Known about the structure:
Elements: H1 7-14, H2 17-36, H3 57-66
Helix pairs in contact: 1-2, 1-3, 2-3
Amino acid sequence: xxTEPPIGAVVEKTQSRFxxxxxxARRARQINAYFNQLGEGxxxxxxxxxxxxxxxxxxxxxxxxxxxxxxxxxxxx
Length: 77
């Protein structure tokens, strides 16, 4: 089974597998929270930034990372 987008291409966007895991998990939680608060009339979360056929928050997050809609913020010391 092929994944879309290809995982190798998404890893290149984050420079490491660990970065990909952290970024995609955080964004998936935000997307899930957005979907859960839709009926409440409160707009505290950013909606998905890509049009996706998937209904799974993690798949949507990976698509956003692949399309450079979500990036890792630079670390400032």
